[in-house]
UniProtKB/TrEMBL annotation:
It holds the Pfam family S-AdoMet_synt_M. This is S-adenosylmethionine synthase. Its cofactor is K(+); Mg(2+). Its EC number is 2.5.1.6. It catalyses: L-methionine + ATP + H2O = S-adenosyl-L-methionine + phosphate + diphosphate. Binds 1 potassium ion per subunit. The potassium ion interacts primarily with the substrate.
Length: 305
């Protein structure tokens, strides 16, 4: 038997991260199209910077879309209601550069029967699942996701009165790698590092931020049995994160593909999900691959797949 330790790190982001903001705007437009016309063909991209959101891409639909209402509503829901936070849903400049889907792509889809519908493009899509957690997601990813979700819940409820929409989380897990009887085993042992970078109001002390993140976020979602005296915590390690959202960094749809999947586990073909209707196999086939992987693990045919 051979035993050694390996460390694996996964990250997650809040809904106010500039790239994730763009993902949500693209998906809000997709949802608005599909709500009125289920056969809509949508490939919607979004980019954002200080005081500006631009929507562009190819959309063929019978739906009538009020881009001002849909986009500003998505930004408001995220929590960008003041330019000091990085964007104000009431006053940013919205640019729309949307064209119809290329007829060359459209004709390749064939008819719209669910059994014979063609794909709008080629691609490499992967699914992944593991029995490490109840969600069948890798522990490093699942814990990073829980931290981001809890942060957002507390920000919205007022539990973190200093918190602003933009945040990132990262968790490093130590795994025990065994080779036993020719079988390779990978077992999560402990959390080695937790990192949270949270956008905050000006004037709040680092001590307050770190105490709140520890007591209200970390302790609420990270099981005590995976923490030990050697676990390291990096909470707002830069010391200041007031400028965030699109004001701090430009945002673009499709730049958080690892956050949207398995935190670096498995493989990724490079195609993003957001803003794409089901004829885009980057999204639909990746969902199907995840279902296959979950089925194999749930059936006990594999510990991870």
């Amino acid at each position: 038997m051979s035993i050694r330790s390996i460390f694996f790190t996964s990250e997650h982001v809040s809904e106010g991260h500039p790239d994730k903001l763009c993902d949500q705007v693209s998906d809000a437009i997709l949802d608005a199209c599909l709500e009125q016309d289920p056969l809509s063909k949508v490939a919607c991209e979004t980019c954002s910077k200080t005081g500006m959101v631009m929507v562009f891409g190819e959309i063929t639909t019978k739906a009538v879309i009020d881009y001002q209402r849909v986009v500003r509503g998505a930004v408001e829901h995220i929590g960008f209601d003041n330019s000091e936070k990085g964007l104000d849903y009431r006053s940013f400049n919205l640019l729309v550069a949307v064209e119809q889907q290329s007829p060359d792509i459209f004709q390749g889809l064939g008819d719209f029967d669910s059994e014979t519908l063609g794909a709008g493009d080629q691609g490499m899509m992967f699914g992944y699942a593991t029995n490490e957690t109840e969600t069948l997601m890798p522990l490093s990813y699942e814990l990073a996701r829980r931290l981001a979700v809890k942060y957002s819940e507390l920000r919205r409820s007022g539990g973190l009165p200093w918190a602003r929409p933009d945040a990132k989380t990262q968790v490093t897990v130590e795994y025990e790698y065994n080779t036993l009887g020719g079988k390779q085993l990978l077992t999560a042992k402990r959390v080695a590092v937790i990192l949270i970078s949270a956008q905050h109001d000006d004037g709040v002390s680092n001590e307050t931020i770190r105490k709140d993140l520890t007591d209200k976020v970390i302790k609420a979602v990270i099981p005590a049995d995976v923490l030990d005296a050697d676990t390291k915590y990096h909470l707002n390690p830069s010391g200041r994160f007031v400028i965030g959202g699109p004001h701090g960094d430009a945002g673009l749809t499709g730049r958080k593909i690892i956050v949207d999947t398995y935190g670096g586990w498995g493989a990724h073909g490079g195609g993003a999900f957001s803003g794409k209707d089901p004829s885009k196999v980057d999204r639909s086939a990746a969902y199907a691959a995840r279902w296959i992987a979950k089925s194999l693990v749930t059936a006990g045919l594999a510990d991870r797949c």
